[in-house]
Every structure is written in structure tokens, then in C-alpha cells.
Design goal:
This protein has 641 residues and is an alpha+beta fold. The chain contains 15 helices and 25 strands. Helix 8 packs parallel to helix 9 and helix 10 packs across helix 14. The longest helix is centred in the middle third of the chain and has 17 residues. The protein is elongated and about 105 Å long.
């Protein structure tokens, strides 16, 4: 008869709570919804059925409540387990009571193989037996070498997300017994004593488990039908895995799941290799390549837009050179051609995007170095200072500590399946968020201290640094104005309340300074340009006005001087009918032989000069200098400052 089987302990055997400790430590996982989505979809992609067709993996996530009477439902599926989770210090601090209604999460994958393998076979190191390793062994993986994950501990997040510290797995396998479903449950608690008996950490919901024999999953038609009624699966006869998290933690709601789906797996979805359905108590939302919603987070939505562009490219034309094969891998100036540098600077200065393929060598033990590559995608991004997004195969690697940000540049680094992906996977820890050469798997397979990880992690910042060089920062005249594109109020927090500051504002000048004399003119921003006009509170007589104004204009650039990097493709002030137009009253405009400058002469009281037609989405620098009529031209030296 199906029920929970507990492992009694004699008090002399080893007690291993390392896996339980990881699951129950408060800092192990910051966001349960993200952890569930990361681990669940990773497992689904790894279990993809190879049919020879480009069929996406489909994941269906359902939030629901038990449809039956609470008491009967809980007694049928949990029964004596309630006595165990109610004990103190067993790792279930918010354990449900037997009278609580079961609100569950159902995570199902399709176009997958299910939990394949001989469920009655003993464990053998290195053998791929997904059923046995997924259900019975924590910290052990049955995945092959070319899988997204390979540590065998991430699955604990499903147990942690349950207030009951339990999961149920309903699987139909693509091999062996065909479409015959199997059901098994698992509970993970700490070592404990109940009614004078000692129990180990794990318990299982099974058909039978005789001493010294293999655990027998449930295959009884009536029990499987009861399970489908209690937990309304979307699976019919398709191979795959349906995982139930009973009494799911209340922090795992539709909003947090929706955000995690887009933030973590937008690249796989945009590639057409994954489709997700989220069912929130009957309200279903689909996430697909042509139907990926915005989540209201500026950073995530922008990352999605860049990824959408990246996957749309038929090929990547720009490529750096390979570093020497036998030395430390370092991305330096000698590897980046002038063509690649120009492509990067031009794209970023014009708010465009650019893609670069970057080759390098990896160094497996006992074989010659292997040449491989990754792809970098860049775009100009005001108010952005975060590290790049890293995608290893289809899995986001979200906390690469060696990575560096590039100011005002958003970066995406994609490592396709192949030698480099295998190399980096071996350097990942249990949660697949960082790369380190200190992991056991890495040290077993690769030579260390050759810089490959840092080469990949810092590629975005290095490419930007190399492309823009060490040019001087822009300088201006006595009335240089920086007109920024619209930005949010910098003094507001996410909740809309102003931040409080302490101490004296360092920008506040001392009280005993002489007042600054009034300016001769003002430079004011308009919707698509600027206006220069007489200061109403300044000199009133013609003799006190400037004889002449020199004006130069440029869009801001990532690095270097905006004046020397000015491009006439942006605008050309020499053309009276160009996209940027000048007008003047009580003064005359004298156009220069340079496309980003002009002069103002014959200045009379009440003068006003207007320039319109600039790109409102780009930051504009306007430099206005009052001169005498003798100073009739910009010096060539100023062009380069």
C-alpha cells in the first residue's frame, strides 16, 4: 500500500546533514521563485528529447489549491508526515498543520524524456541514471557531460520551497516501460527523534520498500488516478516530468515567477528553444519568442531587447585576433584591429549596437590547447553601470565575480555549446552563478592559472577600453552646457520617497565668497536643441554685450573628446536646410567651415539665437565662448580637447 517510508537510525551510523543544511540555511537562496525557475527550466532543457526536429522544450507552471476536502486530501498524501514536520528544529520552521489547505506549485516539462533509468538499480559512480540520482541521491548527478547543470544539488530548492519540505514526482519515461506513469514522493528533514525512535533525514512516498531491496515507485492505476484528481496535471500521455511542490512557500507567487521567467530565461525563449506557460489559478500567460512581455524593470527589459537583437543576427562579421596558444590568455590592444575598434566606437557613439566574436585558447590536461570562441554584444546605455549578462549555452550565469562593468555600455556575452562551454561549466559551483578555477571538476580536467576565465569575464570592459583608448575627457569654454536626455529623479527611491542625507552638502559654497557677477548670456535647453539669449538680469546696454560668440556643439561620447570625435553624419551646421536649423534675432549667424560650430555677431540688446533639430535621445554638449571681433576663429588645438 502506498505511503511514507521513514529511515530509522540506530544512533551509531554517520549523520550527514550537509545537504539539508544547505537547503535550510537562510542565505543559500535569496529568491525562491528565481531558484525554482532556474533549476526547473535547466533540468527541462537538459532532459530535452532529441527528435531531430527543432522542437522547443515546453514548461508549464501552475499555482493551484487542492480541489478536494482538506482533511481527506492531507490524510491521503501526507498522513504521518505531519508528526515529523511538526517537531522543533527539524528544518521546517513554517510547517503546515493537518487542517491547512494545500496550496501547491506544479512544474511540468514537455518534449522531454522524463526520469529515465532503471529505478531498481543500485547507484554506480559515473552512470547516467536520472531516476535514481534525481530522487534518491543529493549531491550526485546523473547528467552527461554536455548538460547545462552538473552538480546534483540544485534540486534541493524544490524541497526548500515546500513548507512541508516535500515534493512529488510524476513521470512518464521516453524509454523502458513506455507511457506507464510512475509516482514517488520525497521529504527532507534533519536528524530527529519521535516517540523514542531516531530517524535519518530522508523519507519517501512509495509503493513498497523492503529492507535491503530497491525502493518501488507507485505504478498502481487507482493511486495514479487519485493523484491526478488531487493535483490537476496538464500531462496526459506525453513523456516528461511533473513535479509537485505541496504547501508552497507564500513568497512564490505569480508575479515573482513571471519576473524570474523573463529575467533568467529570455535568451532561451527568444532563441525559440523554450516556451513557458504560467497558470495562476486559471489565468494563463504564455512566454514565447514572439510573445515575451515586459516586466516593468528597466534593466531586465533592456537586457531582453539586446538579446532579441543578438539572436536576430544571421552572422557576426567583426572578430578579434586569437591570443598566443601557449601563454596566458589576455585580451590586449594587439588583438583588436582598427576595424573592430572603429565599429565599437561608431556604434556606441551613435547609440547603435555592435557584435564581436572573440577567440581564445583553453588548455585541457594532457592534450594540445584548443581554440574556441564566444560572442560579445554591446549597446550604448545611459544610466547603466552593471556587469554584462553572461549566457553559457542557454543558462544565465548571473554572478561572475571577475566581470567588470563598462560605463554607459550594456553588454551581453554568449558562450555557445562547445569546448568553451564545457570548460566554464566545469568551473561553476552548485548554483551555476560564477566561474572559479578552484572547483574539483576544473582542476581534474584543465590546467590552471592561464587566464581563460578572466579573459571571458572582462571581455566587455576590455573591448570598450581598447576601442576608446585613453583620450582626454572633454573640456569646454566659459559657458559649456551638458544637456542630458530625460532621466528619472535621482533623489527618489523605488518607492518614490526622497532619500535622506546627513551632514553638510559639499557643493554648498562658503557664505563669505563674493557673489558671482551676472553672466552676459544664458544657454537654455529646449525639446530638441538650445537657445542662447541675453541675460535679463545682466548688462542692459549695448556696450556691455559681447562683441562675438563662438559656439560649438557635439553629442557626448563614451570616452575621449566629443569635439575630436564629432561626426558630420550626426548633423552639419553648414547646411542651412539640414536636419539642424539655426535662427537669430538682434544678431547675425556666421557659419564656420566646420560642421559643428558657428559664430554670432552684430549682437544687440535682446538678442536670441535658437538651434533646433537635434536628437532628443542623445546627450548634447554646447560650448559658448564670448570673444572680441579680432578672435574670429576657433583654434585648431581646441578641436581636439
Amino acid at each position: 500500500m502506498a505511503g511514507w517510508f521513514f529511515q530509522q537510525h540506530d544512533g551509531y551510523q554517520d549523520i550527514d546533514q550537509s545537504s539539508a543544511g544547505e537547503a535550510f540555511s537562510g542565505g543559500a537562496i535569496r529568491d525562491l521563485a528565481t531558484a525554482i525557475v532556474r533549476e526547473g527550466i535547466q533540468n527541462a532543457l537538459d532532459a530535452r528529447e532529441q527528435t531531430g526536429e527543432e522542437t522547443p522544450v515546453v514548461v508549464k507552471i501552475t499555482l493551484g489549491k487542492c480541489p478536494s476536502l482538506v482533511t481527506a486530501h492531507n490524510q491521503k498524501w501526507f498522513d504521518t508526515l505531519f508528526e515529523h514536520v511538526a517537531l522543533p528544529d527539524v528544518g521546517a520552521p513554517n510547517a503546515p498543520r493537518s487542517s491547512d489547505r494545500n496550496e501547491f506549485l506544479l512544474f511540468e516539462d514537455f518534449n522531454t524524456k522524463g526520469l529515465v533509468g532503471d529505478y531498481s538499480a543500485p547507484y554506480k559512480p559515473g552512470e547516467e541514471n536520472n531516476f535514481v540520482n534525481f530522487m534518491y541521491h543529493d549531491g550526485v548527478t546523473g547528467k552527461g557531460e554536455r548538460k547545462l547543470g552538473s552538480r546534483g544539488v540544485g534540486k534541493i530548492v524544490f524541497t526548500m520551497a515546500s513548507r512541508m519540505r516535500s515534493t512529488f514526482a510524476f513521470t512518464i519515461r521516453a524509454e523502458g516501460d513506455g507511457i506507464k506513469p510512475l509516482l514517488i514522493g520525497k521529504n527532507l528533514l534533519r536528524f530527529r527523534e519521535l516517540e523514542g525512535k531516531l530517524y535519518g533525514g530522508r523519507a519517501y512516498f512509495l509503493k513498497e520498500w523492503r529492507e535491503g531491496e530497491a525502493r518501488q515507485p507507485i505504478d498502481d492505476d487507482d493511486a495514479l488516478a487519485d493523484f491526478r484528481v488531487s493535483f490537476p496535471l496538464k500531462r496526459r500521455n506525453e513523456p516528461g516530468l511533473s513535479l509537485v511542490i505541496p504547501f508552497v512557500d507564500p513568497s512564490v507567487d505569480a508575479n515573482s515567477l513571471r519576473f524570474a521567467i523573463v529575467a533568467e530565461y529570455h535568451y532561451a525563449i527568444l532563441r525559440g528553444e523554450l516556451r513557458v506557460e504560467l497558470d495562476d489559478h486559471g489565468e494563463v500567460e504564455t512566454f514565447s519568442a514572439d510573445r515575451l512581455p515586459r516586466v516593468g524593470d528597466e534593466q531586465v527589459d533592456a537586457e531582453v531587447a539586446l538579446a532579441r537583437w543578438a539572436v536576430s543576427l544571421p552572422s557576426i562579421e567583426m572578430q578579434t585576433a586569437s591570443p598566443p596558444s601557449d601563454g596566458i590568455q589576455k585580451l590586449d590592444e594587439s588583438l583588436v584591429s582598427e576595424e573592430v575598434r572603429t565599429a565599437i566606437t561608431s556604434a556606441l557613439n551613435h547609440r547603435d549596437r555592435v557584435a564581436i566574436r572573440v577567440p581564445l585558447y583553453i588548455h585541457p590536461k594532457d592534450v594540445a590547447p584548443v581554440v574556441t570562441h564566444f560572442d560579445v554584444f554591446l549597446e550604448r546605455a545611459e544610466r547603466h553601470s552593471s556587469k554584462p549578462t553572461f549566457i553559457r549555452e542557454l543558462l544565465p550565469v548571473s554572478d561572475v565575480r571577475d566581470a567588470k562593468s563598462a560605463s554607459k555600455v550594456r553588454g551581453l556575452v554568449v558562450i555557445a555549446p562547445g569546448p568553451l562551454a564545457d570548460f566554464l561549466r566545469s568551473a561553476e559551483g552548485a548554483n551555476h552563478t560564477d566561474w572559479s578555477p578552484r572547483t574539483d571538476r576544473f582542476q581534474e580536467r584543465y590546467k590552471g592559472r592561464l587566464g581563460e576565465i578572466r579573459f571571458v569575464a572582462t571581455a566587455v570592459s576590455r573591448l570598450v577600453e581598447i576601442a576608446f583608448g585613453n583620450a582626454n575627457e572633454p573640456v569646454g569654454g566659459i559657458a559649456t552646457q551638458f544637456f542630458s536626455s530625460a532621466i528619472p529623479n535621482a533623489t527618489s527611491t523605488a518607492s518614490g520617497k526622497a532619500k535622506k542625507t546627513s551632514g553638510v552638502d559639499p557643493e554648498t559654497p562658503p557664505d563669505d565668497l563674493d557673489p558671482k557677477p551676472p553672466a552676459l548670456f544664458n544657454v537654455e535647453q529646449t525639446d530638441d536643441g538650445f537657445t542662447i539669449r541675453q541675460n535679463d538680469h545682466g548688462p542692459a546696454s549695448e556696450g556691455e554685450l559681447p562683441e562675438r560668440l563662438r559656439v560649438r556643439v557635439a553629442y557626448d561620447v563614451i570616452n575621449g573628446s566629443p569635439w575630436s570625435r564629432f561626426d558630420e553624419i550626426d548633423f552639419d551646421l553648414r547646411k542651412p536646410r539640414g536636419n539642424v536649423r539655426l535662427s537669430a534675432s538682434n544678431s547675425e549667424i556666421v557659419r564656420s567651415d566646420k560642421g559643428n560650430r558657428f559664430a554670432v555677431e552684430s549682437i544687440e540688446p535682446g538678442f536670441e539665437v535658437t538651434a533646433i533639430g537635434f536628437d532628443p535621445n542623445r546627450d548634447l554638449i554646447v560650448d559658448v565662448t564670448a570673444t572680441t571681433a579680432v578672435e574670429s576663429k576657433f583654434s585648431e588645438g581646441e578641436d581636439d580637447r
